[in-house]
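Case study.
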Amino acid sequence: MTGCEHVLPDIGAYVLGALEPAEEAAVREHLASCSDCAAEHASLAGLPRLLALAAPMEDDGLPAPGPAVEERVLDAIAGERRHRAPRGRRLLRPRVLVPAAAALAAVVVAVVIALGTGDERTPGFEVALQPVAGETASGRALLTSADAGIKMRLWVRGLPRDPGIVYEVQCDAPGWTASAGTFRADTDGRAYVVLNTAARRGEYDAIRIVRRKRSSSSDVLQAKL
Amino acid sequence: MAPSDVQLIQRVRADDTGEAMRALYRAYSGELFGFALHALGERGAAEELVQEVFTRAWRHAGSYDPGRGSVRTWLYQIARHAIIDARRRASVRPALPLHAPGEAEAGEAGPTIEQAMLGWQVVAALERLTPEHRQVIRLAHFQGLTMREIAERCELPVGTVKSRTWYALRSLRLVLEEMGVR
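After joint prediction, the assembly is written out as follows.
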């Protein structure tokens, strides 16, 4: 009869059915007469049944949803939130945004990035927004190429807690600027918005977020264009 | 200090920035996706399911009761319901492909939710093994190679492959026991 020290290491392979026929017969014979090895076999014998429930393993770690799913979730929720927002609050927006006298007052956040150097295969890429001197805001933008420009998801925090302030996002290229739209911060000084700009990838090299105030009389925004 | 799951759930409804939801998503989307993948057998369907789970969690965040279980448990409950709904929808369309072999193939409904949960726990347990242990299980169980074939492929003595397989299964059993799977 084969000794335990020879059989024990074979028990794993035996359980998985990965031994040669002669080896398998030898293990089977030993297990019938050795209670210690039989106990070891019993402790592992349930594993193939569990393994059978597992999807075939890939070699590159645990499966994960694609990166776009995270944005789809946040987009879906932002959409429902807008849909369910109190009526009064929704009506307020156009009234404040319309005035042509709104003017560029201060650059809050500026970032200079080299667009077009990102990996072309990625669905979007993220850039950090750096505060200009004297400002405490921070944020990031996720840029995705859309049909006719760029879709920009923007997260900003640390803004003044004043929902009356309107911010504009601008895409700057040497000699020109494209607006990506406006937004305001919530009462915690934070904002998450999805904006679109006609500027295409590679056509601009900086994003700026500017604070617009109604009280200012000079239309600095138009001068920039 | 990072906010707790309970704080995040309590915050999501009022959080216009989406950051509380993003934090929850990043904490749990991976394992929920694995669970969904085992239940539905197809990446696209599993991704849709993950999206559905977090959207439902946002809608019903107000009904979460910390006294009745962890946020994780609550998210899994949402996922179970979403899986049942997704299967109900799928049953009126052409069948979804299914990964799980064995008992599951007997019926056309695919693995039960319990089987999907177990399957996913096994995958998560395998991920906690060393790469060497994971590799021998992958080659022997999932690819059906014998010890001798693995030894040839990996250029290792067959005795090494055998003892490695034995230790790999012992480790897997221990990890599963720690996870409460027996």
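Observations recorded in class. Chain B has a mean pLDDT of 87. Chain B touches chain A through 68 residues (CB under 8 Å). We will return to this complex in the next lecture.
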